[in-house]
């Protein structure tokens, strides 16, 4: 991809302040924002002007976005390194959808699995499916990465809609986590979901065996309290889970895109089938918008273009996601996998090295907590961190509406402060007002000056409902897709996680005392020895 024109435009922006853009264009806020069905995206607090936006849109067009988007929704095998289609959108497609992979409509199977999930989830919720101790009180989802982060994020986000059994998550191979989760639970009323696309992931399979032993110590038939979510039905059978409690899916659902289907079962049990259907419908509505809206009004495209502008063109190395919504506390972690596993690549589709940087580091925390932790650096540090704020107009607690207004005020204040800053002169006047003069006033004013001109975007919605969450998740999925298309990479494989897995398998025996450490580098050999003697 040729970024030269945009890099030249970037040079022009170096001496300009974002606030000047508002002075020269009184309608800037309106012109550099877009809405869709209850979502509103403001990107006017960036240095992007009409010329830059036109170039960014041209970039997406030259990258073949329209054709690549059509190919994805059509079921083409666009994940070329794994020879797979990319059809997570099929999991949320409407009742009349027909989507074919190799000429075969996949929708009947998708609908049949969803119907089985709904029956099972409602049976767990109603008590029709029970444990030996009666109604299921607790559900433990064992999975990692894409088999964990989506449901974890969703259950926290939709807490006001969670009226089923308590849902817990175990992901880490660190035995501390499963110990702490299982310790207070009653095996007689606990359902264990083993969520793993491949059913081979070491962390998940190790935790699943631990859960099996825990159940076996408390109930006569531990297998009766297991459910599997996987593409590998041979392996789920080997584990001892009967087919009627296996919810399968196809290899065209990537792990980090999988919360819409069986991997979302824990969320469905928590919120119920109707609310889960609303979540799917929200995702489907974003799919329709992404496919039909002109690029200039297309929310996933606009988010992607802002991302490309800040990372590839301006060279800002990270992107902060800052939801002013405590229940979205796990969204940054979810987006870390979605964005960094998808677009953290260094070769193009054809295997040739990229001539530019790939995806940014994504990080964040909910506001207002982040304000009292890392915002100092965002406001006054030397590195520019583009911030993506997110806030709902309302909360679910009408009696605490005054707190919600305070939350919203904080969100807006941060983006205002980032853009407008506080000049040295204003800081000096303030120092004088405090009774300081001369050098002392100047010195304090330097510390109290905010450079401003720091870019941010704000995504606004009304209320975080299941449907709204579906829209937001699909919005980010498509944003990652568009960025990947512009970068010319495969956003749907993740070979970069393999080497560490292989080496961990080889290192475990060394920690248990086996020979062979001499093949390791000096540092690793030393650490193995050091740890082994303390184990
Ligand atoms: O760490 C890589 C990865 O393959 C992720 O892409 C995936 O979400 C996670 O591991 C879990 O994989 P599985 O669902 O097969 O257990």
Automatic annotation (TrEMBL):
Active site, per annotation: 341, 372, 501
Protein name: Glucose-6-phosphate isomerase
Family matches, as NCBIfam families: PRK00179.1 (NF001211)
UniProt-annotated location(s): Cytoplasm
CDD domains, alphabetized: SIS_PGI_1 (cd05015), SIS_PGI_2 (cd05016)
Similarity comment: Belongs to the GPI family.
Presence of keyword Coiled coil: no
Location (main, coarse): cytoplasm
Classification via PANTHER family: GLUCOSE-6-PHOSPHATE ISOMERASE (PTHR11469:SF1)
EC class: isomerase
GO molecular function term, any single one: carbohydrate derivative binding
Role noted for this protein: Catalyzes the reversible isomerization of glucose-6-phosphate to fructose-6-phosphate.
Cross-referenced Gene3D superfamilies: 1.10.1390.10, Glucose-6-phosphate isomerase like protein, domain 1 (3.40.50.10490)
A Pfam family: PGI
């Amino acid at each position: 991809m040729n970024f030269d024109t945009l890099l030249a435009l970037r040079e022009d922006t170096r001496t300009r302040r974002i606030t000047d853009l508002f002075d020269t264009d009184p309608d800037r806020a309106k012109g550099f924002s877009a809405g869709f069905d209850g979502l509103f995206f403001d990107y006017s607090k960036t240095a992007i002007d009409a010329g830059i936006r036109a170039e960014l849109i041209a970039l997406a067009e030259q990258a073949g976005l329209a054709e690549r988007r059509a190919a994805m929704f059509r079921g083409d095998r666009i994940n070329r390194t794994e020879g797979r289609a990319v059809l997570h959108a099929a999991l949320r497609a409407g009742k009349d959808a027909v989507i074919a992979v190799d000429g075969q409509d996949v929708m009947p199977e998708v609908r049949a699995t969803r119907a089985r999930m709904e029956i099972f989830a409602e049976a767990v919720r109603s008590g029709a499916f029970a444990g030996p101790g009666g109604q299921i009180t607790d559900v433990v989802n064992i999975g990692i990465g894409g088999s964990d982060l989506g449901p974890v994020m969703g259950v926290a986000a939709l807490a006001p809609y969670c009226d089923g059994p308590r849902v817990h998550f175990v992901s880490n191979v660190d035995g501390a986590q499963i110990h702490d989760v299982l310790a207070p639970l009653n095996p007689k009323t606990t359902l264990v979901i083993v969520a793993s696309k491949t059913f081979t992931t070491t962390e998940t399979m190790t935790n699943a065996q631990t859960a099996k032993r825990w159940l076996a110590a408390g109930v006569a038939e531990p297998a009766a309290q297991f459910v599997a979510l996987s593409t590998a039905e041979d392996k789920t059978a080997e584990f001892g889970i009967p087919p009627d409690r296996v919810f399968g899916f196809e290899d065209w659902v990537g792990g980090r895109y999988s919360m819409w289907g069986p991997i979302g079962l824990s969320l469905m049990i928590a919120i119920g089938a109707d609310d889960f259907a609303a979540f799917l419908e929200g995702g489907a509505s974003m799919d329709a918008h992404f496919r039909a809206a002109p690029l200039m009004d297309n929310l996933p495209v606009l988010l992607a273009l802002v991302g490309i502008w800040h990372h590839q063109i301006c060279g800002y190395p990270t992107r902060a996601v800052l939801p002013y919504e405590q229940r979205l506390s796990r969204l940054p972690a979810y987006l870390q996998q979605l964005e960094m596993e998808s677009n953290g690549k260094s070769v193009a589709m054809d295997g040739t090295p990229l001539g530019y940087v790939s995806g940014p580091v994504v990080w964040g925390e909910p506001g207002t907590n982040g304000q009292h932790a890392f915002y100092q650096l965002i406001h006054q540090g030397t590195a520019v961190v583009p911030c993506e704020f997110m806030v709902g107009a309302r909360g679910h607690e009408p009696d605490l509406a005054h707190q919600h207004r305070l939350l919203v005020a904080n969100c807006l204040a941060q983006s205002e402060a980032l853009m407008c800053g506080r000049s040295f002169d204003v800081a000096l006047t303030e120092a004088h007002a405090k009774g300081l003069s001369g050098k002392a006033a100047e010195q304090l004013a330097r510390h109290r000056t905010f450079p401003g001109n720091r870019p941010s975007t704000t995504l606004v919605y009304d209320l975080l409902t299941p449907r709204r969450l579906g829209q937001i998740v699909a919005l980010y999925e498509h944003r990652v897709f568009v960025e990947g298309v512009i970068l010319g990479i495969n956003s749907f494989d993740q070979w970069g996680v393999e080497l560490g897995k292989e080496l961990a398998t080889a290192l475990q025996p060394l920690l248990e005392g086996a020979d062979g450490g001499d093949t390791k580098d000096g540092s690793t050999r030393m650490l193995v020895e050091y740890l082994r003697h303390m184990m």
